[in-house]
Write a structure and sequence with these properties.
Elements: E1 2-4, E2 7-9, E3 20-22, E4 25-28, E5 30-33, E6 40-43, E7 46-48, E8 51-53, E9 56-59, E10 71-74, E11 76-79, E12 83-85, E13 102-104, E14 107-110, E15 116-119, E16 122-123, E17 128-130, E18 134-136, E19 139-144, E20 151-154, E21 157-158, E22 161-163, E23 170-172, E24 175-180, E25 185-188, E26 191-192
Parallel strand pairs: 1-6, 2-7, 3-8, 4-9, 5-10, 6-11, 7-12, 8-13, 9-14, 10-15, 11-16, 12-17, 13-18, 14-19, 15-20, 16-21, 17-22, 18-23, 19-24, 20-25, 21-26
């Protein structure tokens, strides 16, 4: 799959529960990408929403009748002049009671009770990841206390420029926030460059 030159904007908020925006999918479970040389490519695209990811906005926490509850993102690239950002909002606007902007190069938010695998993904130099309260080069927010909720990030690279002007920001070259059981998070053979 390839997305090139779009402006993908979601005006929902985390308070209303419909703010997930992604270059390939806003919210999903299953597999994105494949074992080939290029699973997904997002290039020269503006991805903008309260939960924004270059490939996936948010992992779906609902149960499925067929298939899997897990999410695998493999062989995906974010390139060109892509910008992944939380919109500029008036933080005094009181109806946004749960303001929690999340932005990341590959997956914005994965706060589910299931497994996440991100493998062989690249966020190239020149990509901007902006304005999230939880902001990461690969993933913005991982949260679950469930023993089955394992996250594995393998052979990934992020050279994104990560910026935020929000108060109490958490930002990282790979992950903005990892808030689950320590034994359930595995990071290997991955590189963070760019700037924070």
């Amino acid at each position: 799959a390839e997305v090139n030159g779009l402006h993908i904007f979601n005006s929902g908020t985390t308070a209303t529960g419909n703010g997930a925006t992604g270059g390939i999918a806003g919210m999903i479970k299953g597999t994105v990408g494949d074992a080939g040389t290029q699973g997904c490519l997002v290039t020269d695209t503006l991805v903008e929403g309260m939960v924004a990811g270059g490939i996936i906005g948010k992992g779906d926490n609902g149960s499925v009748t067929y298939g899997t509850n897990n999410l695998t993102v493999k062989n995906c690239t974010v390139a060109g002049n892509t910008v992944i950002k939380v919109p500029d909002l008036d933080l005094s606007y009181t109806s946004i009671a749960n303001f929690d902007g999340i932005a990341a190069g590959i997956v914005g938010d994965y706060s589910t009770a299931y497994q996440l695998i991100i493998e062989d993904c690249i966020v190239k130099s020149g990509i901007l990841v902006e304005n999230g309260k939880r902001t990461g080069g690969i993933i913005g927010w991982i949260a679950s206390s469930n023993i089955a909720a394992k996250t594995t990030i393998t052979n990934c690279q992020s050279f994104a420029e990560i910026t935020s002007f929000r108060p109490a920001v958490n930002a990282g070259g790979i992950a903005g926030v990892v808030n689950n059981r320590a034994e359930n998070f595995q990071l290997s053979n991955s590189v963070a460059g760019g700037s924070i």
